[in-house]
Design brief:
This protein is an alpha/beta fold. The protein has two domains: 207 residues, D-Maltodextrin-Binding Protein, domain 2 (3-Layer(aba) Sandwich), CATH 3.40.190; 93 residues, D-Maltodextrin-Binding Protein, domain 2, CATH 3.40.190. Helices cover 50% and strands 15% of the residues. It contains 16 helices and eleven strands. The strands form three sheets. Strands 7-6-8-5-9 form a five-stranded mixed sheet, with helices on both faces.
């Protein structure tokens, strides 16, 4: 007769599994498993650079962020954004961690479920206007009715166009919108393939100076601010790295303010522009403010109202609440004059 060993081994098995469970609980409580994964820093930080964001060009050219993050064995990767729509696409697909857009474009992204936060203002530009060729008979927004107009959907020039049409009692339905990326829109205007174009600097400045394009409708207040966005998940997992990126951006901003001639050359070199075009773009770009105040929020909200009216944002979206969910001031609020001065001196 074989001895019954199952009864003898059962207590031992229970003791083993009980001890293993206790060990796992201790490790979890001490952060030995899950917290280690959550706190693991990335090997690479990906940022976009854009010709409509001169500070990104300064930062890329100077290499300050690479030098700073090398101390933590983190590399920097730069990705070109042709427009706010591309930056939003990259952010939504986690191809970049930080992206440059217009404030109103970021609002469209947030309203449509893009998990991003607007954390810093890199400029207050007048970077868009409505343009025609030098021989055009179009003189006002009302003259656009029935005309072919080029614009890049999801960007500030597109939103600017919608606001201008709305103010003139028109809508997108009253024109034939030709969806083109910004450089293609300029080319289409110069070839006469479209009657008008919602331009964006530096392409707009280039068209103005080199092909005689006319800016027939300008409204600085309809230009929403240039904002730096971060993926929400990245900000939650790596708040200290967000601080480092903003410190580098702030260094670039101070450098830009203190070195206007060098800034002009940087923009011209990086964007492959003539210095005259670079000067034209920088003449209508203000780097004096980094914070989201009532004026900035109001500008973005006003754009949101027109976007809702046009159908670009769902009618059920609460614009004011979405703006509040979009903007996160905790990182820029840490930037003090003393810190800025110390960073710029490095």
């Amino acid at each position: 007769m074989k001895p019954n060993t199952s009864r003898r081994t059962q207590p031992a098995r229970l003791l083993f599994f009980g001890s293993l469970l206790a060990l796992l609980l201790v490790l979890a409580g001490c952060g030995g498993i899950s917290n280690e994964t959550k706190s693991a820093q990335p090997d690479i930080i990906r940022l976009d650079y854009a010709y409509y964001n001169p500070l990104s060009l300064v930062l890329k050219q100077q290499g300050w962020l690479e030098k700073d993050l090398a101390k933590q064995n983190i590399k920097v990767e730069w990705v070109l954004s042709q427009g706010s729509n591309k930056a939003l696409e990259f952010l939504n697909g986690s191809s970049i961690d930080f992206g440059s857009t217009a404030g109103a474009a970021a609002l469209i992204g947030k309203a449509n479920g893009n998990p991003l936060k607007a954390i810093y203002i890199y400029s207050k530009p007048e970077w868009t206007a409505l343009c025609t060729g030098p021989k055009s008979t179009i003189k006002s927004v009302a003259d656009l009715k029935g005309k072919r107009v080029a614009a890049t959907r999801g960007t500030d020039p597109y939103i600017f166009l919608l606001r201008a049409l709305d103010q003139a009692g028109l809508s997108e339905k009253d024109i034939e919108l030709i969806p083109l990326q910004h450089p293609d829109g300029r080319a289409a205007l110069e070839k006469g393939d479209v009657d008008a174009w919602a331009g964006l600097d530096p392409h707009m400045a280039k068209a103005e100076l080199e092909s005689g394009a006319q800016l027939f409708y300008r409204n600085a207040d309809f230009n929403s601010y240039g904002v730096l966005n971060v993926r929400e998940e990245f900000a939650k997992q790596n708040p200290a790295l967000v601080d480092q990126v903003l410190a580098a951006y702030e260094k670039a901003r101070q450098w830009a303010l203190q070195h206007p001639e060098e800034l002009k050359k940087t923009l011209a070199t990086e964007a492959k522009l003539s210095e005259a075009v670079a000067v034209k773009q920088l003449e209508r770009t203000d780097f004096s403010n980094i914070s989201f105040g009532p004026q900035q929020r109001s500008t973005i909200s006003a754009a949101g109202d027109v976007l809702k009216k046009s159908g670009a944002i769902d009618q059920n979206v609460d614009i004011n609440q979405t703006v509040s969910n979009l903007i996160d001031t905790q990182f820029a609020d840490k930037i003090t004059p003393a810190k800025v001065k110390a960073t710029a001196a490095q």
